[in-house]
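Appendix B, example 12.
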Amino acid sequence: MALDAATIEANIARVREEIANAARSAGRNPDEITLVAVSKTFPAESVRAAHVAGLRHFGENRVQETESKRRSLADLAATWHLIGHLQSNKVRRAVELFDRIDSVDSTALAEKINDAAAEHGKQLGILIEVHMGETTKTGVAETDLPDLTRAATSLSHLDLLGLMTVPPYSDDPEFARPYFQKLRVLRDEIARQVGHPLPVLSMGMSHDFRIAIEEGATEIRVGTAIFGQRSSPARVL
């Protein structure tokens, strides 16, 4: 059952307070951190309630679900992030629907997105998703990251903003810390190698975003802590 608007608002206030506390303890400005509300599987009414409470960034992982949801939310001023794996046959529709694609993991996919963005006269922000060792995860391997970064920066309708990762899940938030540290180091190394700034580090979810902030996250993706538990089994975001 979807949470009511008052509960969503209270949850957002609690998450924002935790963001501020984590940022200050790390000597950072909380305003540097973007909260992306992971609204996948939740109804449009929940997104609207979060928007009323002040959120402007929403993460979805399915083109078809987002297409349906956005029809009833067309009046909202919001930034829509595709955070799930993008199949090549859905690239054109994804480029129409989303303001950001945060899960680019191959040169072929980047080229398809660029071609579709060109057709729509659109400059599209992207993140490269980095595979951090778990065999079930999508994302580019570390060894292939430099080549993909160079390719993405050469595509005229893409704006490569940074990197994203989803570490292996653990109930212990500290388990994710080495993965977040590693992504930050990779970002710094790749930015130097290719001579292209990569300001965005998208990492951290409901259970571990405080650790991610301590390790340099500029965007966190939070679903359960805002919208409640999903009715179907899914990784906690």
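The mean pLDDT is 94. The two ends are 18 Å apart (CA to CA).
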